[in-house]
Amino acid sequence: MLEIVVPLSLVIYALSALLTILRMALGPDIPDRILTLDALYVNAIALIILFGVYLGSTAFFEAALLIAMMGFVGTTAVCKYLLRGNIIE
Amino acid sequence: MAYVIGVLFASAVYMMLRRSIVKLVIGLMILSNAANLLIFTVSGMTRGSPPLIPEGLTEPAGVVADPLPQALVLTAIVIAFGVLAFAVVLIHRAYEVVGTDDLDKMKDTDT
Amino acid sequence: MLLSLILLPFIGSLLPLLAAHKGRTVCSWLTAAPPACALLLLLSTAPAVFQGELLTIRWDWIPALGLNIGFRLDGLAFLFALLILAIGLLVILYGHYYLSAKDSHGRFFSLLLLFMGAMMGVVTADNLLLMVVFWELTSLSSFLLIGFWGHRRDARRGARMALTVTGGGGLALLAGVMVIGHIVGSFELSDVLAAGDILREHHLYPVALVLVLLGVFTKSAQFPFHFWLPHAMSAPTPVSAYLHSATMVKAGVFLLARLYPALSGTELWFIMLSLVGLSTMTLGAVVALFKHDLKGLLAYSTISHLGLIVLLFGLDTQLAVVAALFHTVNHATFKASLFMSAGIVDHETGSRDIRLLSGLRHYMPITAALGLIAAAAMAGVPLMNGFLSTEMFLGEAIEQRVLGGWSWLIPAVAVFAKVFSVAYALRFIHSVFFGPKPGPLPKQPHEPPFFMRAPIVILVVLCLAVGMLPALIVGPLLSVAAASTTQTILPQYTLEIWHGFNLPLALSVLAMVLGVFLYSQRHRLFNLWNRLPPLSAPDVFEFILHSILVQGSRRITKLLESGHPQNYLLILFLFTIALAGAALLQLPSLHGGVSMTAIDFPSLAIAMTMIVAALGTAILHRNRLTALLFLSVVGLGVALVFARFSAPDLVLTQLSVEVVSIILLMLILFLLPRQNQRDSSVQRLWRDAVVAGVGGLSLGILTFAILTRPLDSISKFFLAESVSGGGGTNVVNVVLVDFRGFDTFGEITVLAIAAIGIFGLLDGMRLFNPRHLGHHYAKDRHPMLLSVLNMPLLPLALMVSLYIFMRGHNLPGGGFIAGLITAIALILQYLTNGLNWTNERLNDNFHPLVASGVMIAGLTAMGSWFFGMPLLTTAHTHVHLPVLGEIPLATAMVFDLGVYLTVVGATLVILENLGKLKPFTSQPTTEP
After folding, report:
1. Of C498, C520, C542, which residue sits at a domain end?
2. Residue C767 has pLDDT above 60, yes or no
């Protein structure tokens, strides 16, 4: 079961990453694009975790952890810029 | 992978040839990404076997990815950030002195 | 001992600078000490040298290039070294009184000693390449000395001209030496001197000879390169006395003497030297008579005498060589004293114009007497040293038969030049010191201080002593010098004051009578001279320089340096692409034979994502924020590629750096104002696009070509040694902190320097009022929700970073990554809660952090020294850091801690300082 589901999910998430990037290219607004970036981070987390499951390796889980954290910080920074201009006040 | 590096490099060059300083910086970032990828990929693309040695063994079991380019790229990434930061601040300083971020206008070498 | 002889002046050149503030007297004493010591050392070698011994020392320097540090002291070198040191000492004494209080004593003496050391190097070097190095050093230091009064235009001009001419000659000399080395197979002087026959037979001999002679002629101011010497007279007089009479211009003569056994004895040698020498001698003598400037007169006279010496070498008999060396010594003594006299006149009257000066014997009788004797020596009056060497010269000139039926031409021209030489010597003495008292002068003339005259007294006494007792005083020195010059046994010759009535004496008398007559008719000659079109050497020189060199280079510069940084980049890119492209084109086939890995969909998707993102960045670059977002997608994609191809450490690093970079760019976007869109022209867009496309294409092909070829990696060693040697199972981390720890140390140092550099750049920087057109910002500075949400994140992040740090050695992680995570966690606090809030809770000075990081890493590295192990380890020796024996993990961890601290500190310094910049929104800023 797992050997079918995991590759399938990988493909689906890859597809979704492609679609998100399409959305980012299309826009139309800056907040939209920031959201897509955030969504892309989520996709990346999923891809990495699934990949780890697929390989049976835990070596990449920290990477997922880090994306979760870093992605948040990145999004925060961009939002802050959009809201206030200066991000460190 | 070759395509990816090619495209990355192409857009980096294109961005760096634009007039605005910010674009120069962005181009620089893409360029460093492209270069890192280049170093990384030419060392061979090994899938799914990180250069980790399992507990209790002294040598890795089976074929693993080449650790040396990875180490080099790792420091390269960090250094790239340092260089980028320095370039950015330098540019900002230049902008402040010259009063423009248009590279075409930064002609006078004396200012 | 030989080494200290050469090193003393160089080391001594630091002393005057150090003692400059101690007052002039101390400074001068300290300056005189090293040459005095060197002179004593030199004299102590005299017995050995006079026995005909050859003192040498030698070390290998760059043996692969045939360049060794070697010095030799033989008779010839001894003679010149004696001149350099002895006259140098006298010049220092003279210079002490000559320089005014306004001139920097320390700088002057330092340069003088530097020059002295360089000259010593030239005359004692045992390796031709080494000699060229010192030769260039004399050119450089003489440039500085001539331009000592840099506020004066003529000084700058003269210095520039001297440097251009002698430096150019130095290049020719270097080329000539290379050719000689190529022919002989060695640059060692002893080999070259022994290989004279091989040299003369070789078909490259003319090339070598002409190139070397170019060096000689420029340095010794031979026609047609003589013009720089008169303009070098804008130097302070001690410099003229030293460089342009006694030493530097004699370097060319020295080189002729040094290479005499190797290069002389051919038709070409004779023709070049005798023609150049003859024309220089005549031209110098004639022009000297018409110079109204005392130093100008002396300069042209020097040119004339140098021509005489060169001519003597050209005559190519052994006695001529003796005469040449003899005249070199004599010329140095009388010309230095004449220059010093001229300097005294200039110093005490404020003028050097012969037309203004007259009757100075009433004011300075002693100087007048000294000048008289020196000038008599120059004119070749009997009982003076100049008489003896000119007699020898005339004798040789009569004896030679090299021009066949035209051989009488050489003595005839020599007498002609001598007539003028007598006339200008008379003019120097009679017009300046005799006649009626002068009209109003800039200064009231009087005798100079005793010690300013002392050097002249010494030199003049020497002139007389040599003139009267030649065999006793210079006989042995001359014979040993001449013997080592020709490298053979000299024929019998006598140095005597009286040779009896013979043809040379008759010619001398004739020349003297004619010279006096010429001088009495000088006013007519001057009228004639004045009708000649004025031709200023510097103007001609600069015209040539300007029209050909400067304009040409300017055109090239304009082409390349257009002032558009993009164009520079474009040129660089094009060049790189051309280089890589050329290499690619030579490949027989692109595909190297290794089959490609199959493509799976997720990889493809990642690749596609990145491509779209990269293109998106490029296409949508108008909107900076969008471009940035795409940029972070590219970064994310790179991280995913790293993940896909098994590099977990890289994933972590790439992600953290990505975020830090985004924050950095956000800050920069805020700091740089948005400006109106500027469109480049369509052609330019296309041009750039094509360049970028071609570049990308070639790089892609390159990658493809490499990827499809088999790969041989050196990492097997690292993989095998990681656990047993480095004590860690994460090979990447072990490589970083252990095998290649020195690299890592270098890199954290770079990071630290970058951080400090940024701090320095930002220090005191003010912001313009950012022009964010029509953009309304939210009023809430720090949204409550965000800050509350963030608070628990800090300990969480710190914990993660600690975890990653600790396990770094065995599993993905390590100092770099942990440092970045910590930095980001702290930056997040700045983001959400603001600068003030965070700084209240956190010491905002991160510099100690950076410093301690680098120090910890460095100390850990050096710690191995205490255990007798080499610093860290290198990949070459493979001696691995077994510090503390059984717990190698610990030292590597400490090193990693240093890395960690540096990364945290540097990142925070960079970002926090950027964040600190505040726009001055409240008050209008003025443009600088």
Report:
1. C520
2. no
Q: Which domain holds residue C89?
A: 1-159+229-258
Which residues contact residue C768 at a Cβ distance below 8 angstroms, ignoring those fewer than 6 apart?
A: B96, C673, C919, C925
Domain hosting residue A28, numbered range: 2-84
- The verdict on a CB contact (< 8 Å) between B5 and C914 is no
User: What is the spatial distance between Cα C588 and Cα C18, in angstroms, rounded to a whole number?
Assistant: 65
Q: Is C394 exposed, middle or buried (0-12, 13-18, 19+ CB in 10 A)?
A: buried
Q: Categorize the per-residue pLDDT at C875 as very low, low, confident or very high, splitting at 50, 70 and 90.
A: very low
pTM above 0.80, yes or no: no
Both tokens of C494, joined, read 């006598």
Cα separation values, C641 from B40, C225, C607, Å: 10, 67, 8
Chain C hits for B96, Cβ within 8 Å: 765-768, 928
Window C:647-706, CB contacts with B under 8 Å: 647-650, 653-654, 657, 660-661, 664-665, 668-669, 671-673, 675, 678, 680, 688-689, 691-693, 695-697, 699-701, 703-704, 706
Which residues of chain B are modeled with pLDDT < 70? 1-2, 17-21, 43-64, 96-111
For the cut 70, the answer to whether the pLDDT of residue C467 exceeds it is: yes
Q: Answer yes or no: do C906 and C763 share one domain.
A: yes
Q: Could you tell me if residue A89 is inside a domain?
A: no
Number of domains in chain A: 1
The length of chain A is 89
| CA dihedral sign of residues C171, C176, C177, C183 | positive
Task: Identify which of C461, C460, C444, C262 has the alpha carbon closest to the alpha carbon of residue C364.
Answer: C444
The distance of Cα C395 from the centroid of its chain, to the nearest Å, equals 45
ipTM over 0.85: yes
Nearest Cα of chain C lies from the Cα of A28 at a distance, in angstroms, of 10
